[in-house]
């Protein structure tokens, strides 16, 4: 099963493409899409849409695992990230990719077995589960891979139908 995990943002979008088969993972690719802070916001959204579209066309995932956003203070940032999530979802839907969303608590629980795990603990377990020699960098890519692992671990019956 091909899964792409996404850590959404508008300055940096983390992605991690994995194959999941027979309880085993194979990392296809991971990285980030970066937009420049001096760009008009609508151009940043367009760049995310276009660049993510190229990644989706290359790896052809069947599922997109997307981290839900959680903000308590900065409403402007939350709205901007929500807009970026919208173009991310649109990029997937126009390619027939099923979207499954997870909270940070769900991701931590699925990857480490503990919902209050630290970011470093999640990153270390992500590297172990994927058989990587080091924690994936940058952090946004590691987070996206963790979301992909969460999708596989929490939807095994759904993914294998």
Question: Any overview of this molecule?
Answer:
The mean pLDDT is 93. The protein has 6 helices and 5 strands; from the N terminus they run βββαβαβαααα. The protein has 161 residues and is α/β, with parallel strands linked by helices. It has a 5-stranded mixed β-sheet with strand order 3-2-1-4-5.
List the helices and strands and how they pair.
Blueprint lengths: L1 E6 L4 E10 L2 E11 L6 H19 L3 E5 L7 H19 L4 E5 L1 H9 L6 H12 L8 H16 L1 H4 L2
Parallel strand pairs: 1-4, 4-5
Antiparallel strand pairs: 1-2, 2-3
Helix pairs in contact: 1-2, 3-5, 4-5
Write a concise keyword list for the protein shown above.
6 helices, single chain, 23% strand, 161 residues, five-stranded mixed beta sheet
């Amino acid at each position: 099963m091909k899964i792409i995990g996404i850590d959404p943002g508008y300055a940096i979008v983390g992605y991690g493409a994995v194959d999941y088969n027979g309880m085993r993972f194979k990392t296809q690719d991971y990285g980030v899409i970066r937009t420049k802070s001096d760009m008009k916001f609508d151009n940043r959204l367009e760049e995310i849409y276009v660049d993510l579209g190229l990644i989706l066309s290359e790896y052809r995932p069947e599922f997109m695992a997307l981290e839900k956003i959680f903000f308590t203070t900065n409403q402007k940032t939350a709205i901007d990230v929500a807009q970026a999530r919208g173009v991310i979802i649109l990029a997937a839907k126009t390619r027939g990719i099923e979207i499954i969303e997870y909270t940070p608590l769900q991701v931590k629980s699925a990857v480490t077995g503990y919902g209050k795990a630290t970011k470093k603990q999640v990153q270390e377990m992500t590297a172990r589960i994927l058989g990587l020699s080091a924690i994936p960098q940058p952090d946004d890519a590691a987070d996206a891979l963790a979301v992909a692992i969460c999708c596989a671990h929490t939807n095994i019956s759904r993914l294998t139908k």
